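Protein Record: Sequence and Backbone Structure Tokens
======================================================
Scope: a single protein chain, as residues and as a discrete description of its fold.
Tokens: labelled as protein backbone structure tokens, with as many entries as the chain has residues.
Position: the record begins directly beneath this header, with no further notes in between.
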Amino acid sequence: MFRFASVSLIAFSAVMAGCAARYIPEPRECGGALPSVLSKVNMTELMGKMANEFCPTGVGALNPLITDRDVVLVPDFLDLSSFKPGQAGVVLGEVTRGALSEVCRHRVRQVDLGKTIRLNEDGVVMLTRDSGRLSSSEFAAKWGYVGTFSTMPGKLLLTLRELDIESGATTRIISRELNFGCKLGDGEYKFSYSVN
């Protein structure tokens, strides 16, 4: 009995030593703050693909009411948990403005619509009661693209809405899910992501 216990203890110790020798802690950069994650993702490519769904290459805008002469408003993306852009929302807004300008050939204007719009379960709703303000030089556009994002562990959800500013109607919505994290390979963790 003593011999069996000794052999079992030695075998258990060898297994535990092998496990301890192979443990490689996951580095901080595998998750972390959203701006850190965005810096590792090709956001220009991702937002370019989303813009291409609004304006397929060679076709122009899918919405026949948007012309080449129209200015479109593109505010920074809003975080759905705070309804504020934060650093990540500013970055996403900048990349989206660039993509819509390049892919769709839209004339883009950045504007802070935070006090003018809000989001609810039915879509985008205009808050302003002053319809003259929408046609002022600050909002001299009929169309806009409003982006939102939501974060969860290992996941970023992006939504971009094409919006008729005068009526508040959403004419098209495109969403993407960015899954990210680190995978262990060759004895070290490497950041990876996929887009759905």
Notes: The first helix runs from residue 2 to 22. The radius of gyration is 24 Å. DSSP finds five helices and nine strands in the chain.
